[in-house]
Fold each of these.
Amino acid sequence: MNKFITKAQIERGNSHPFIVIVNKEISDHVRSWRFNILIVILVLTCFGSMYTSLTNISKVADVQGNNSSFLFLNLFTLSDGTLPSFIVFISFLGPLLGISLGFDAINSEQNRGTLSRIMAQPIHRDYLLNAKFLSALIVIGIMFFAMGFLVMGLGILTIGIPPTEEEFLRIVFFILISILYVAFWLNLSILLSIQFRQTATSALACIAIWLFFSVFYHLIVNLISKANLPAETASPQQVINYQKFILNLLRLEPDRLYNEATTTLLMPSVRSLGPLSMEQVHGTIPGLLPLGQSIMIVWPQLTGLLAATIVCFALSYVSFMRKEIRSR
Amino acid sequence: MDQNIIELVDLTKKYGSVIAVDHLNLSVKKGEIFGLLGPNGAGKSTTILMMLGFTEPTSGWVKVCDINSTTNPIEVKRKVGYLPEDVRFYDDLTGMENLIYTARLNRISDEEAGQKTKDLLIRVGLLDDMNKKAGKYSRGMCQRLGLADVLIKNPEIIILDEPTLGIDPLGVQEFLELILKLKKEKGLTVVLSSHHLHQVQQICDRVGLFISGKLLAEGDISSLSRKLFSDGTFITEAGILPNSLVTSDSLQVTNNLERLVENVKSIQSVISINVSNNVMQIGCSRDLTADIARVIVESGAGLSFLLKKEYGLDEIYNRYFEGGVNHE
C-alpha cells in the first residue's frame, strides 16, 4: 500500500518537499538585504586584500628569485601591514557571515507565526532544520568559490602567471576549509536560534561567543601561560610540554584551528604546527611540502572543526525534534 | 456517519506541575463540526497540538483517522489541515505564492497547484488580492488565506484554532458561513476552538466545554442549553410601567396583568413567563423580542424597557460551577 502511494507521488513528477524548502530558503537568502550587504562587504574585502598583495608581490618575487614556486599563493596570504591579507579577512568575516545567515533560522519563523503552519504539512520535522542549514551552506559555498576564483582570475590577469595544478588544488582546499569554518558558526547560530525565542537574543549570544573566542580567550590563555611559566632551570622536556599545553589550549578556539589549517595549506613552507626540537630539524633540507603532506599536518585541525560543527548540529537536531510547536 | 474520526483517550499533558490537559476523553464523529469551547488557558490549544503531534502527551493517546498522532504524525498531517491561532504567511511572498509553496510541500504538481489555488482563492474571496504581498493582508484576509491554505491538500479533517479571533463581526459571520458551506459540500469534519460561544454555536453540531484541562460537558448546543436553562434558550426581560395597568380598582390591575401575560403567552415559541416587580421574564425558543414588544404595546400596557438576555460562556461556566458543587 505504502509503495503504491510513493510510486503514485513519483509519477506525478513533483520535487521532494525537502528540495522545495531548500529552494525557498536559498531564494530568501539571495533576496534578503542582509545577504546583499554581506556580499558587498566581502567583495570590498576581496579587492582590498588583492590590492595589497598585488602591490607587494613583486618584492616577494624578487626575493624568491628563481625559486618562486607557489608565488601565486601569495595573493591570498601577502600583506604589507596596512590591510590584512585575504585569509585574515576571511577568518574575521567568516564567523560574521555564518552568524548572520543562521541566527534567526528557527525563531524568526516562530515569531512570524509561520512555523506551525509549515509543521502542519506532511513533512518530517528535520526537513526544515536541514534545509535551513543546507541552503545557507550552498549560498556560502557558491559565494566563497566565486570569490576565490575571482581573486585567482584577477591574479592571472595582473601578474601574468597562471597557477600550477598544485596551487589550484591548494586554493580549492583552502576554500573548502573556509566553508567548513563558516558552517561551524552557522550551526552554532542555528542552535542558538532554536534555544532563544527572540532573534535579538540569539544574535547577541552568537556575537558574544564569537567575541569571547576572538578577544577574551587569548587573554585568559595568556594569564594561564604566565602563571605556569616553567622555571629557567626547567628541563627541555618540561619546556616542550609547557609549549604543547599552551598550544592545545589555544586550539580549543575554532578561529585558531582555521588559521593553522589555512596557513599550512597556503604556505607550503610550513612544516609543523608545534615546537620542533633541534634533532628533528637537523639535517632537513629546507623546501616546500607537497599538498598531501600539508593536508596531513592539518588533518587534526580539520577533524576538530568538523567535530565541533557536527556537535552543534546534533544538539540543534535533538532540541528541535522535541520542541513543542506553539503557534506563537 | 457515526464513525469516530478523532479519538482522545485518557489524554494528559503536564508542564512541570501544571496540568494543561487532564485525563481527557473525547471523540469526534465523521462529518460533524465540533467546537472546543473554553476560556483562555483551558487546554484547548494544547489538545489540538497533541492531535497533530506537535507536542507529546504525558499519558494517554490520540488517534486521528485511526492513526496515532504521537508516533505517526506525518500520516496524520496528510489527512488533517490545521489553521493555527493567529496564522501568518511569508510576508515577502504573495498570497498566491504562499499557497503554491504549501501545495509543493504536499507534493501537488505545479499545474494542479495553479488551478487549485485559483479555485480556492475564488472560494475565499481573495482572487483580487492574490498578487498582493501577504505582509499587506489584513487580519481577516490572513484568516481566509489560511483557510485556503488548509484546504489545498484536500484534507478529511480541518482543525481551526481560534479562527474568529480578531476579525470584525461581519468577517466572523462570513468566515463561519464559509466553513459551514465547505463542510456541507465536501463532507469535511471540522474541529474548531473558540472562547466566543455565541459566535460558534450557530455552526457547531456538537461542542465540548473545557475548563482547566477538563471536559465539563459535551453535546449539541440545544441539548446543552436545555440542560442549563430549562426555561428556554432565549430570555427576554420586559419592564412594564405599573401605572399603565392602573385603572380604578386594584382588582383591575391584576386582571390587566393577567390578560397581558395571556397575550404574551399566545405568541408562538414562548415557553415560560415569570412576573415579579413589574418585570416579565419571558423564555422562548427563538429570538422573539420584536413580537413581545408589539404584543405588550398592543395590549395597552406601558413598556419601560426591553432587554434581550444573552447567555455567554461565562454564564454557562457559572451554571456549571454551581451544578458541579451541587453534585459533589
Amino acid sequence: MSEEQLAARIKEIIVETLALEDVEPASIETDAPLFGEGLGLDSIDALELALAFHKEFGVRTQENDENNRQYYHSVGSLVKFITDKQAESAASES
Amino acid sequence: MVATATSRSSPVGGPVHVGRQAAVLVTVAVYSVLAPFGYAVLALLCLVWRRDPVRRARRLQTITSRAYRLMHGWLRLTRLVDFDWRSGADQLPRGACVVVANHPTLVDVTAITAALGGAISIVKPGLYRRAMIRPLLVGLGHVEGPGPDPIRAGRVVDDVVRHLEWGIPVVIFPEGTRSPPGGLQPFGRVAFEIACRAQVPLVSLGITCAPVYLSKERGPFRPPTRTPELRIEVLSVDRPDGSTNSRALRADCEARYRAWTDEVADGTSGS
C-alpha cells in the first residue's frame, strides 16, 4: 500500500470509527491537526482510533510512549507511525 | 466596610482591598503552619488504614472534606471568599456519580469536596508523582491523569470506573483547566465516557464567583474590594445507560453550560 493509499484508508477509518457525521474522508487534510483545532478530536477518540489501527494494520500504540501525541498529530504523522511500526515488525520477523 | 479608604488600584482587574490583603497574608501563614501537620496526620492514617483501600479512602475523604469545610469557614470569616458549603448541599448527590463543573477559581475543588462530603479527582501526573504527596493521593483514591499522552486516557477511564465502585463521587473539570472569566474552554470527553461506562449519574454543577477572584487573571494576593461570593448550583443530572454515547452526552452538556454561562453574563451585565 502506497503512502497515499494508506493516508486515504486512515481517513476512512477516522470517519467510520468515530462516526463523524458530515465529514467526508477526502475532506480531511493530511497535515492538518486532528486534535483540538482542526478536526477537534479528543483523547477518547485517540483511544478508539488506536484500537481500530491495531485491528486494521496490526500496529499497537503503546501507553506511556512519550511520542504518542506526535504520532496522532495528523493523518500524515499517522502514516509515518504505521509504516515505521510495520517496518519494525517485518524486520524483527525476518 | 469603607472600601475607598482602604483600597488602592491594581494594575489588572480593578482595585485591591488592603485589609483583605492582610487577611490573605495571615491565611497563607496559617496554612503554611498547619499544612505540614495535616499532611503528616494523613500520611500516618494512610499507614494505619493500609489494609483496606476502600475503607481508607472513605475515611480519609471524610476527614479531608471536613478540613475543607473548616478552610471555607475561615475564608468566610475573613471575608476573603463567601461560600457556605451547607447552602444547596441537599440538592447534591450522594454516592457514586460523576460531577462535572466549570472551573472559575482556585478553590472550586475544595468547595465541591466540602459540599459533597468527599470526592475523588483526576490529578495531573506532575503532581501525582511527587514522592511526598503520592501516598496521600493514592490513599484518598485520587487517580493519576493522562497528561499529554492521549492513549493513557483509557487507563484513566478504567481506574476511575473501578474507583466509582467505592461509592465516592468523582469530580472532573471537563475543560481540563480553569475557565476564562465569563466563558468556557472546550470540554474534553473523559468525564462523559466514565459516566457512560460506569452507568452512573452525571451531575453538572455551575460555579460562579462574583466579583472575580482566585482566577488565572486575579490571583490570591489581589483580593477585590467587595467580598467575592462563590456559589454552586446543580444545573442538570443526566442518567446515562448502556446506549448513551459519550460524544453526544458531552455535546449536550457543553451546550447547556454555554447557555448557562450566557445567562450568568447577561445577569451580571444587567445588574
